[in-house]
Write a structure and sequence with these properties.
Number of helices of chain A: 2
Number of strands of chain B: 7
Number of strands of chain A: 6
Structural class of chain A: alpha+beta
Distance between the termini of chain A: 54 Å
Order of helices and strands of chain A: EEHHEEEE
Largest sheet of chain A: 5 strands, mixed
Strand content of chain A: 15-25%
Strand order of the largest sheet of chain A: 2-1-5-3-4
Helix content of chain A: 10-25%
Helix content of chain B: 10-25%
Oligomer: heterodimer
Distance between the termini of chain B: 19 Å
Chain lengths: ~110, ~140
Amino acid sequence: MSIEVRIPTILRSYTGGEKAVEGKGDTLGDLFADLDSRHTGLRGRVVDDSGALQRFVNVYLNDEDVRFLGGIAAPVSNGDTVTILPAVAGGSGHPAGPGHPAGPGHPAG
Amino acid sequence: MDRATYDAIVAHARRDHPDEACGVVAGPAGSDRPERLIPMVNAARSPTFYEFDSMDLLRLYRELEDRDETPVVIYHSHTATEAYPSRTDVSYASEPDAHYLLVSTADPGTDSVRSFRIIEGTIREEELRVVPVLEPAER
């Protein structure tokens, strides 16, 4: 028994294209350390230098967002499924600034 | 993209103005066909930021996976600026196969809609073609 970890498209370069990999550990932090031993670099895309979850990704333990379960310290056990999804977010907040081509818009509806 | 989907995206953007609107158009995996419009709630409810709610995101990806679909188009609106990816958009863009569609609702009288690929921080604009109906899929 182990923990299944579902990998989003953008991180499959770390898993040889696999959509899901397996790992082990008592906490999410342990699990990502274990995964990183076989899929080098994966952990760094999910966990930042301070050991917290990156803000660009969401991590779910079974059906719950781990931010509400203690984040990287969340306990995990055999048979759990962990899902990593990149946040879908953005917005005009910080404009790209001058220098980009400001071409005409495409067909108006 | 078919006219009905295009019009529905613009209408969604207008409806949510001055907040940013967002959503996806799903299609069969590998098809690059925007077939099924899925408007999403902007959990940030902000005029300068959009974000899919974390649980909505999980439900969406599970649904897509169950149907063997991918997010072919990811759309959102800019409500005071042009339809061009911001630095924030680029930093969050994480679907290299998706078309990022931007709608500007800054001008009440004119719809500006543009499409981009955003791959590893690089923005590339692409032609957006609106057709009466999508051509039948090649099988």
